[in-house]
Amino acid sequence: MFPDHARRYLIPLVILCGVAAVAWFSHEDSNEDPAKAGSSSLVARVDRVVDGDTAKAWVNGKDEYVRYIGIDTPESVKEDTPVECYGKQASEFNARLLAREPRVKLVFDKERRDRYGRLLAYVYSGPTLLQAELLKRGYATTLEVPPNTSRAAQFRRFEDEAKEAGRGLWSAC
């Protein structure tokens, strides 16, 4: 069925794929609380977008709110708060970014949860860091909340570039 030269690579390849699949699925289905997990990142499946800087995701068998570290977007769904300038656009842009790939990588900083119990993470859709895209295109401003500030300088540069170019909320609001 397979030539001899291909057969010697087939078995190691099948074993490698099997090991990778077991590692992937056992990690995602773990019941360990992500706020206490030893790993600095994990994969989650996005259920829905809440607004420009928050999504709801299936994380280790639980539905979790994930708050994006380091940015703030105008309010669009906060109770007893009017929709702010560019809030709806920020939420829609976040939804478009997340629609490309339902699985995201959550990378943690120093604290894993905020005072409201939300997971705090840098959120990647494929190779794209969502916070960077939201800042660069003028949908977000920086928000430094110590001790989760490892990317604050980088985020300030993205915000400054968007502000200088008049992108997004910097020209609309």
Give a structural overview.
The chain has 173 residues and is of the alpha+beta class. The chain has one domain: OB fold (Dihydrolipoamide Acetyltransferase, E2P) (Beta Barrel), CATH 2.40.50.90. Helix content is 36%, strand content 24%. The protein has 5 helices and 8 strands, in the order αββββαβββαβαα. It has a 5-stranded mixed beta barrel. The longest helix is centred in the first third of the chain and has 25 residues, at 4-28. The protein is globular, with a radius of gyration of 19 Å. The N and C termini lie far apart (66 Å). Mean pLDDT is 84; it is low at 12-32.
Number of strands: 8
How much helical structure, as a percent, in the residues? 25-40%
The total number of structural domains is 1
Poorly predicted residue ranges? 12-32
- Helix tally equals 5
CATH architecture name: Beta Barrel
**Radius of gyration computed on alpha carbons:** 19 Å
Quick take:
It contains five helices and eight strands. The strands form two sheets. The protein has a five-stranded mixed β-barrel. It is an alpha+beta fold.
Keywords:
173 residues; alpha+beta; OB fold (Dihydrolipoamide Acetyltransferase, E2P); 5-stranded mixed barrel; two-stranded antiparallel ribbon; 8 strands; 24% strand; globular
